[in-house]
């Protein structure tokens, strides 16, 4: 995700769509944090989460 979304296989798993990336982010980040972010795609969500969480461990 850090370098953007790319179709293809990573670690033997086929990445079929950007929606899968968004779903993985939703599973990894608390819902109350994501609900505060307005995003248009997986890369946009990742970049906004990165900015929001700078300094957090």
Please describe what this structure looks like.
- β1 (8-10) and β2 (13-15) form a beta hairpin.
- This protein has one domain (8-52).
- It has 57 residues and is mainly alpha-helical.
- The chain has a two-stranded antiparallel sheet with strand order 1-2.
- The protein is built from 3 helices and 2 strands.
- It is globular, with a radius of gyration of 12 Å.
- The longest helix is centred in the middle third of the chain and has 11 residues, at 18-28.
- Helices cover 46% and strands 11% of the residues.
- The chain has helices at 18-28, 31-34, 42-52; strands at 8-10, 13-15.
What secondary-structure arrangement, pairings included, does this model have?
Blueprint: E1 8-10, E2 13-15, H1 18-28, H2 31-34, H3 42-52
Antiparallel strand pairs: 1-2
């Amino acid at each position: 995700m850090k370098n953007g979304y790319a179709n293809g296989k990573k670690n033997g798993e086929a990445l079929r769509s950007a929606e899968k990336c968004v779903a993985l982010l939703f599973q990894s980040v608390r819902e109350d944090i994501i609900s505060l972010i307005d995003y248009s795609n997986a890369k946009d969500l990742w970049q906004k989460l990165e900015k929001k969480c700078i300094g957090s461990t």
